[in-house]
Amino acid sequence: MGENGMQAKILWIEGNRAEGPSFIPDMQQRGFELNSVTTGSAALARLYEFDPDLVVVNAASLRTTGKRICRSIRASSDGVPIVLINDPQHVVDEDCANAVLTLPFTIRKLLNRVIPLVTSEGKKQIHKGPIRLDVELKRVHCQNREARLTPRLTQILQHLMENAGAVVEREVLFRKVWDTEYTGDTRTLDVHINWLRKAIEADPRNPKFLKTLRGVGYRLDV
Questions:
Q1: Distance CA 29, CA 148 (A)
Q2: Which of 11, 120, 130, 193 is most exposed by smallest CB count within 10 Å?
């Protein structure tokens, strides 16, 4: 966790021969998960599998205005916010990115622009692997699939995401979500798990993310 309050994932485009400061190490120190590429086409290839919360285009290091890259990211992504870094020679209109920063500037100024963009959708976002859950808006986004969830499904998914990789026992999950001590009949939980799979899995019958451990519980593999 960084000072951004969440482990936001940033796809960072920066040329090999970048002149001027690279903010990548500073951003990593502050808890952001960075995936850096050196070209716009490499960024487009990574968009789907990395599924970032934000894209930073260091156009100054690419010696371009960055306009074309920003447009292609917009066209290929599901509304992911873009921060464009340019140099004073390349003045661009603000509408090709969510924020435009002209060199020179400080890491603090960069953070001031980045943090609102990665935390602004709902008040509470959880992001694990390719799964992004907006707890407030009760929406889940996973690999080009988006679904609205009921409050109960949101609670189940939130609990599984907060314990990603670990087995969550059926009784524990049932007690937490249904807020009851009675766990004699947890079949209704199975029904909800099936609904959840329909929301996040490409093939709900052969789940890739939400696994059942017979007689024990469930595990979210991301």
A1: 34
A2: 120
Which residues make beta-bridge pairs with 99? Answer: 83
- Residue owning tokens 């917009």: 74
List all residues 6 or more positions away from 19 whose beta carbon is below 8 Å from its beta carbon.
60, 61
Contacts of 148 (CB under 8 A, 6+ apart): 138, 139
pLDDT in tens, 144-186: 788 888 889 999 999 999 999 999 999 899 888 887 777 667 7
pTM above threshold 0.90: no
Instruction: Please name which of 41, 32, 34, 45 lies closest in space to residue 12, comparing C-alpha atoms.
Output: 34
Enter the tokens of residue 165. Answer: 């990789």
Nearest to 168 by CA among 152, 189, 143, 144: 189
DSSP state letter for 201: -
d(Cα 213, Cα 89) in Å, to the nearest integer?
A: 59
